[in-house]
Design a protein that fits this description.
single chain; alpha/beta; 8 helices; 5 strands; about 40% helix; about 20% strand
């Protein structure tokens, strides 16, 4: 099983990334820090520059997709949202035939951290991810919500750390099959 992790934070080593580190410990993972790539918004132009095609091709090769994002205004970060928005065009892209069919085999997990009542205020994002997975018939395997505002705060959230340890165990079981 191949795992790819998409990080949507602009902050290096922020709370969501720290929590993901626990979930991905000792695993072979393709990490994609979206802040390091240029992804153009959807346009009507036939040929678009940017790094999106390179990233989506990596995603198609993975079995498990982990999205890692802070809670921004009750949703995912704009970097992650922009990346997922581009899937609309990929569904019609002749250079990516059967994209929807290939996505059906994927299992999606989400890790998010917020500072202001995240266990309640991140729920719209969880629902959004469920709808995205439903549309593409992907399995929405799990999500972890952590609490933290300042860098490192998530390390105090024992429930989130415990959930990340359980996800790590699950991933290790999946990759050993």
């Amino acid at each position: 099983m191949k795992i790819i992790a998409f990080y949507g934070s602009i902050r290096d080593k922020g709370n969501s990334e720290t929590l993901a580190d626990f979930a991905l410990q000792d695993l072979d993972v393709t990490n994609v820090f979206l802040r390091d790539y240029h992804i153009n918004p959807i346009s009507t132009q036939r040929h678009e520059d940017g790094d999106y095609q390179k990233l989506i091709r990596k995603q198609v090769l993975a079995d498990i997709i982990l999205f890692v994002t802070p809670v921004y205004w009750y949703g995912m970060s704009s970097l992650l949202k922009l990346y997922i928005d581009r899937w609309s065009k990929t569904l019609r892209d002749p250079s990516m035939p059967n994209f929807k069919e290939k996505m059906k085999a994927k299992e999606v997990h989400l890790i998010t951290v917020g500072g202001d009542e995240p266990y309640i205020k991140a729920l719209p994002m969880i629902q959004q991810m469920q709808f995205i997975c439903d549309f593409l018939q992907m399995k929405f395997g799990s999500y972890i919500i952590g609490k933290g505002d300042k860098k490192g705060d998530v390390l105090i959230d024992k429930n989130a750390l415990n959930s990340a340890a359980h996800l790590n165990h699950y991933f290790k079981n999946q990759t050993n099959h």
